[in-house]
Amino acid sequence: MNKKLLISLAAILLLTGCGTTTLKNGKQVVAKMDGKKITAEALYSELKKQGGYVTLTNMIDEFIVNKEIKTDEDAESYADTQLNSYKDSYQSYGMDFSAALANAGYKSESEFKDVLILDYKKNLATENYVKESVTDDDINEYYKEKIFGDIEAKHILISPNTKDNMSDEEKEEAEAKAKKEAEKIIKKLDNGEDFEKLAKKYSDDKGTASNGGKLTVTYGSVVDEFWDGVNDLKDGEYSKEPVKSQYGYHIIYRVKQKAKPKLSKVKDDIIDKIVDTRINNDSTLQTKALVALREKYNLKISDSVLKKSYNNSIKSALSSATTENSSN
């Protein structure tokens, strides 16, 4: 922020000469001392070497993103939520948030909120950029592999009675005991006992035990082990072996699966999920999105020093992010 203010000041001085001394060669003096005068041109030249391209890029992006995306209620809500989160965080550590803003170069919370709104718009611009790359084949593949009809099921959860202060051996014993109890319940089912009554009596999932373990399972709403377990069953079947997950041991009864929703009804959700996945897996996408927007607005940087710094920064951002993505 301070660099931004200084560069802006230098630019203003160059254009207006307000409150400055003019040398015979027409250069504007912004500071002087015994034996030395610093001109606006010299200040500008030095500042652009010290990260001036960052300020220039921020000014460019602020203009473009604000042209592309209006500040709506969602942007305001996002900024307010983020602002309050920062405040709460500083206050929880007994720190003065207003002082922190001032130290960072912000004149007010309102000015900082504008930055948060700009961040929101940059994120949205990135999402829009990625959406343009989503093809019908991408959508159809996701629909085929990851969209399923909801499954009506029942389950009984037996959780091991483990505690953090237990030894590994004690935890293993608790795990074994829970598994054995789940196996006993499966035998009760084999002997014809009622699943819902057993769920009410034995299940450690208090959210479903009271209604006989009934739940509706959707893809992504349960842990993978549970999802795989319920998919391995046919309608009317229950687990013959306990299904282990991070929560303990499940006994699952599959009632029935609803028809898969039509593509037209879930298409927008599919696109959003594909976009989210790509952004989470590729940290270069915001850089690429903003570069594409600058090209759309025919950006040309005439200053050779700033242009070189700008180009190098783009290459560096894409290179380092690509390395990071591959390592993950």
At a glance:
This protein is an alpha+beta fold and 328 residues long. It is 62% helix and 11% strand. The strands form 2 sheets. Strands 5-4-7-6 form a 4-stranded antiparallel β-sheet, sandwiched between helices. The chain has a 3-stranded antiparallel β-sheet with strand order 1-2-3.
Which features characterize this protein?
328 residues, alpha+beta, four-stranded antiparallel β-sheet, three-stranded antiparallel β-sheet, 13 helices, 11% strand, elongated, disordered N terminus
Description:
With 328 residues, this protein is α+β, with helices and mostly antiparallel strands. The protein has helices at 2-16, 40-68, 73-92, 97-103, 109-131, 136-146, 168-190, 195-202, 206-209, 224-231, 263-281, 285-296, 304-327, and strands spanning 21-22, 28-33, 36-39, 151-158, 214-217, 243-245, 248-257. A hairpin with a 5-residue loop joins strand 1 (21-22) and strand 2 (28-33). It is elongated and about 105 Å long. The chain starts with a helix and ends with a helix.
Secondary-structure topology with pairs:
Blueprint: H1 2-16, E1 21-22, E2 28-33, E3 36-39, H2 40-68, H3 73-92, H4 97-103, H5 109-131, H6 136-146, E4 151-158, H7 168-190, H8 195-202, H9 206-209, E5 214-217, H10 224-231, E6 243-245, E7 248-257, H11 263-281, H12 285-296, H13 304-327
Antiparallel strand pairs: 1-2, 2-3, 4-5, 4-7, 6-7
How is the largest sheet built, in terms of strand order?
5-4-7-6
Category from helices, strands and their pairing = alpha+beta
Biggest sheet overview: 4 strands, antiparallel
Q: Estimate the global geometry from the Cα principal axes.
A: elongated
Determine the fraction of residues in helical runs and give it as a percent range.
Answer: 55-70%
User: What is the count of β-strands?
Assistant: 7
Q: What is the percentage of strand-forming residues?
A: 5-15%
CA gyration radius, whole angstroms? 30 Å
SSE arrangement, N to C = HEEEHHHHHEHHHEHEEHHH
Per DSSP, the total helix count is: 13
Oligomeric category? single chain
